[in-house]
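Q&A FORM
Asked by: J.P.
Topic: structure of DUF1803 domain-containing protein

PROVIDED:
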Amino acid sequence: MKIISNEEKLIEYIKKPEIMTLLNYFEKQENPVILREIKNNFPSMRHLDQYLDRLISFEIIFRRNRRYYLHIPQLKAYPLVESWNKINQLAEETAKVTLISFLIQNYWQEKYPGTIAVDFNLPEITQIANEEYQLITVNVEKRNDFTIPNYFSFQTEDYPESFEQLEKLIGDVNQEFYFNQVSTVLDFVLKQKKPRRETIYSQSLIVTDLIQLDPVPKILVPVVDEIPDLPELDAELKKLSGDIRYFAIRRLMKILVPTLGFTYLIKKA
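REPLIED BY: S.T.
REPLY: Here is the structure written out as tokens.
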């Protein structure tokens, strides 16, 4: 179960492992449970009463007649969209990278207007940027794809084993400093020139299949110079209510990137 909300305090609160453990427990309960039963299932959980009260205040857990149960609405699949055929048709007529960059730049930051739990995976994006470039990875399941944006998204967590090669190369380098160094490499490669010398920064781009230096320097992911304008699709999406549009955008992304992640580069200047 994944909770989506425009309540930032709630999103921050449920990041605690104890809270997710509690929510997973409640999700499995077919009937409301009494406090004694909850405590029997979590005998070593400190602050259990406090956690329950806090979840009640967020209206995630409901308490009635001294019994507790999950109160949050749950979604099992993408909601139906009446105009989906029209939206999908317009999407099919648009180049993949054009459509992805349009959706991310124009709609991805919109928050779900409420709080809901979903029982299926939603696409997510990771990114790293400065004034010159923006490097974006779309992940359809988890952050499995071996990319620079995914790597930096793990900086406050343990790196998965699959990122060991990159961790040995650049370690916990400061993200801003790193990407400024990378931008210099990208400047050269976009002109089909090799950087003046090989560094850990150019190597990190090579091992993640972002660039090649031989036989000819080349960017290996799509490069977007301008954010596209798609007026027909934009008009159709704006007709949707905010909650429906939130999921429609992610459903489109799931179709566009059905398996492995997708990475592209925006050149801002």
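FOLLOW-UP: The first helix runs from residue 8 to 13.
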